Description:
Order of helices and strands: EEEHEHEEEEE
Strand order of the largest sheet: 3-4-5-6-7
Largest sheet: 5 strands, mixed
Number of helices: 2
Radius of gyration: 17 Å
Oligomer: single chain
Number of strands: 9
Amino acid sequence: MFELPNSERRMPDAAWISDDRLAGFDVNDEGIWEICPDFIVEVRSVSDQLHDQQANMKMWVSQDALLAWLVDPYEEAVWVYRPEQEPELLEHPESLTATEIADDLTIDFSRIWPRHDPEPETS
């Protein structure tokens, strides 16, 4: 769990913090990191409303996250959030690289999206 600069406490589905930033922080007595991660990933679940999740992603980048991905398995899409930019919708990406934080951090989404069999040919 993270306590953000606005004092909200949040727990993303996945988070990453650079070693440089992490070196200056400790976990408090409650086991909470008092820092906003550089990169977070949230995966939309069946009970999540998309507009609520999108508002959460905007909040993360407003609190110092450099990059935030909202993965929507129902639409097979990823919303990419960056500070001071409009969100970017990527439909059915095969993979994404988090270049803002690490050139070698790539997520292979082809293993996440359902496989669609090609339509059979008709004669």
